[in-house]
Design a protein that fits this description.
Layout (H helix, E strand, L loop, with lengths): L9 H15 L9 H7 L21 H14 L3 E9 L4 H11 L3 E8 L9 E9 L3 H13 L4 E2 L1
Antiparallel strand pairs: 1-3, 1-4, 2-3
Helix pairs in contact: 1-2, 1-3
Length: 154
């Protein structure tokens, strides 16, 4: 008999796999980490009674695991992609990077596209990949950029 059915999203499973690797030094395949995802994201109330998550299976290839980790880190707020438009003038990219660095985020990648077909002439699109602490840190970065006049593109 089934009392209840609970579903979890793919990014929640990725976050669970990433957390299992970091905290428990355990590699689990997606199906094997669904129980942890359900608890991590409040789909199961584990606060009122003892809860056991059965973690099984490590059948995941390294290429897929790399993508899972990236998606898991994004769900956990440990990495963030931020995109904005800048007037293509000397110093504007430096000002953007200064604002971001003041938040304590680590910039791991910058894509500075000067010939974006959707933007007007003289405007460039900058996409930053950042290492962050948590979702609150990502929100802080986004707020600081907005407060400094940067339009965030999502």
């Amino acid at each position: 008999y089934v009392d209840e059915l609970i579903t979890v999203e793919e990014d929640e499973i990725c976050a669970a796999i990433t957390t299992l690797m970091e905290d428990q030094k355990t590699v689990a395949e997606g199906a094997g980490a669904t129980t942890v995802a359900a608890v991590m994201f409040g789909k199961v109330d584990a606060s009122t009674k003892k809860t056991v998550c059965v973690v099984s299976g490590g059948n995941v290839d390294v290429t897929t695991l790399s993508r899972i980790i990236t998606k898991g880190l994004a769900k956990l707020g440990r990495i963030a992609k931020i995109t904005t438009r800048l007037v293509d003038k000397p110093g504007n990219l430096n000002r953007l990077l200064t604002v971001v660095s003041e938040t304590g985020a680590n910039i791991t990648s910058i894509d500075h596209e000067r010939e974006d077909k959707k933007s007007e002439v003289g405007i460039c699109v900058v996409e930053l990949l950042l290492e962050t602490r948590n979702p609150e840190h990502v929100a802080e970065i986004r707020e600081k950029l907005a407060a400094n006049g940067y339009e965030l593109i999502d």
